[in-house]
Hints:
The complex is a heterodimer of chains A (about 130) and B (about 375).
Chain A: E1 9-10, E2 15-19, E3 25-29, H1 31-37, E4 40-44, E5 51-52, E6 57-63, E7 67-71, E8 76-81, H2 91-94, E9 103-107, H3 119-129
Antiparallel strand pairs in A: 1-2, 2-3, 3-9, 4-6, 5-8, 6-7, 8-9
Chain B: H1 8-13, E1 17-21, E2 24-29, H2 33-42, E3 45-48, E4 53-58, H3 62-69, E5 83-89, E6 95-105, E7 108-113, H4 118-129, E8 135-138, E9 142-148, H5 152-156, H6 162-169, E10 176-179, E11 183-186, E12 195-201, H7 205-214, E13 218-219, H8 222-231, H9 268-277, E14 282-288, E15 299-302, E16 307-315, E17 322-328, E18 335-340, E19 343-350, E20 355-356, E21 359-360
Parallel strand pairs in B: 3-13
Antiparallel strand pairs in B: 1-2, 3-9, 4-7, 4-8, 5-6, 6-7, 9-12, 10-11, 11-12, 14-17, 14-19, 15-16, 15-18, 16-17, 18-19, 20-21
Helix pairs in contact in B: 2-8
Amino acid sequence: MSEVPKELKYTESHEWVRVEEDGTVTVGITDHAQEKLGDLVFVELPDEGDPLNVEDTCGVVESVKAASDLFSPIAGEVIENNASLTDEPELINKSPYGDGWLFKIKPAKDSGLEKLLTAEQYTETIAEEE
Amino acid sequence: MGKKTPLYNKHLEKNAKMVDFGGWDMPLHYGSQINEHHQVRRDAGVFDVSHMTVIDLNGQRVREFLRYLLANDVGRLKKTGKALYSCMLNEQGGVIDDLIVYFQEETQFRLVVNAATHDKDIAWITQQAKAFAIQIRERDDLAMLAVQGPQTREKVKPLLPGNLQTSAMALAPFHASWNNDEIFVARTGYTGEEGFEMILPAQHAPDWWDALLAAGVLPVGLAARDTLRLEAGMNLYGADMDENYSPLESGLGWTVAFKPEDRDFIGRSALQAQKNQRTHQIMVGLVLREKGVLRAHQTVSVEGGGEGHITSGTFSPTCGFSIAFARLPAGVHEQATVTIRNKQLPAQVVKPPFVRHGKTCIDL
């Protein structure tokens, strides 16, 4: 079964969110999502400085099988994206919660962070999908 | 639950992701479809294709029957073991299925047809065969393995029974050799690589599977089978052709034998009319150099205002960019525009195959 780390927050559209010690937020797609998509071949990420609102379409992950939009889990400003994914999109398959992270956000005041799903809630969401 | 091949448990042992394919539970991949794809291009892989239907036709008039049933001319099969790729058409020239026919004896030919079209194929063949007194035997007692890749010959050779080894290694492309019902080996495939398709008793399939894996041949799923065949420029029934389109509209004009002119085959008059009119749609290859993946059903527009659709598209692991087949209006096209997720992207029109002997072979 796919991995759902307890310490992360999640969206129904299969992004994960990690609040770092400096208050910034790292975003990726879940193990469940990468497994469903299969081998990834292209990634389009938001650029540094892009303002994002909750559920904004902010990129695309594309596998051999399908293309899937990325939605911003929270409101804020993009401070970095994972440039190594351009040449190695398979990092998302290999390490969805590690080297396969997508982008980092500096959260806005009302970022919507508290509305995200817990690991338990997300586990239920994907169980219902099956 | 779908039907299971004799290798179902072997797939589960290898942690295959199983999917429904034409009513069968089949392996989609065993972890990474891209790795499996490269395995076939660079080394050797094995596909379980036991879901495909093997039909043995017997009778005094079996050659005459097949010359009427099929759009390609079985009259071309003069040497025992020679194989022929053909479409089986309806009266309107639409493709009921595509298949391979093997000439075994003057009174016995073997057909291999698709799994998803099994019921209608059997019904059609049975109906057409009545007038020819043909015995139709569906061989669901047999399994089928496709071993494909440049290392296939070296790895399969020691596994073959002694009395078949020499003849199998001496096979020319598109020829088969067999040892009664013990094993039937054909130098055919659906990847564009060197390889064998082997038809053998279902109860021997698990041992063959184990022996192949022990010889360093890795299992490959249907997902890689699709990217491999598309790179090799081979059509998939149900995607690139079906009963609504003729072989001429599906890039398969080369498989239709209009000569000799006195050979009557089902669909001939409809095809002849379409050929004479020269206004039918055509199948082309497309290449996308931008980021993005061409996929079935995307709209393709060409200069002059015509429009068509992609029938099969994928990211090509060998080329490193996306490739597709598209059905377009008649004419000579060089450039096309594909609508992908609301974006208009330029695609180059090319002649498949896209990959040959493990390397990209199109002029870009």
